[in-house]
Amino acid sequence: MGSQIPKATARRMPIYYRCLKKLQDSGVKRIKSNEISQLTQIPSATIRRDFSHFGELGRSGYGYEVDYVTKVFNELLNVNKIIKIALIGVGNLGKALIENNFRRDQNLKITCGFEKCEENSGKILSGVPVYSIDQMKEVLLREEIHVAISTVPSEFSQEAVEMLVDGGITAILNFAPGRVNVPEHVDIRYIDLTSEILTLVCYNDWLLHPVVK
């Protein structure tokens, strides 16, 4: 993908691809942006603007050819390429991630884990080798891995992320809510499970018991 594509657009591309793939598998041949909007909950104007970054994908009043646009996004996302992922922190959450290991996305695979605790390192979990954290840089460079997931607690996440970056990692999904410092070339995303659940509960409660003024 070219550098001119906005980050927000790039983040929505997998959503578009999954939607289009389902439509293609269902035999849908043509679709309009307002129909994609209903399926993805992304405004149709945003969809048209995003799609415009990739050339003339559709025609006004006609819509988009599902097979063609799916092929374009397939090539842009390089979905047939296996993306190797490293996992740092093989506690309960880490073990669950390894056990699941992106079963629905065959191109994403956790291929190695790293653990500071000697009790959890030196093992093979669901086919994934777990190394000592001291071996991280060596393994990451040898395996040419650039994507990582960190389940290390917030108080240790800065150190863990620095080790990942030192090993050539440029994309990190961090399950610790505390923000960490990374170089400009490293993209890091955060998943705060507690915050997400509280937001979900509050929103659900508001739907069930809206405040009437």
Give the key terms:
single chain; 213 residues; Arc Repressor Mutant, subunit A; Rossmann fold; 2 domains; 3-stranded antiparallel sheet; 8 helices; 19% strand; elongated; CoA-bd; WH-like_DNA-bd_sf
CATH level-4 homologous superfamily of the largest domain: NAD(P)-binding Rossmann-like Domain
CATH class of the largest domain: Alpha Beta
Integer-rounded radius of gyration: 20 Å
The name of the CATH architecture of the largest domain is 3-Layer(aba) Sandwich
Write down the overall geometry.
elongated
Look up the CATH topology of the largest domain: Rossmann fold
Got a strand count? 10
Sequence of secondary-structure elements: HEHHEEHEHEEEHEHEEH
Protein name: Redox-sensing transcriptional repressor Rex
Keywords: Cytoplasm, DNA-binding, NAD, Repressor, Transcription, Transcription regulation
DNA-binding region: 15-54
Main location: cytoplasm
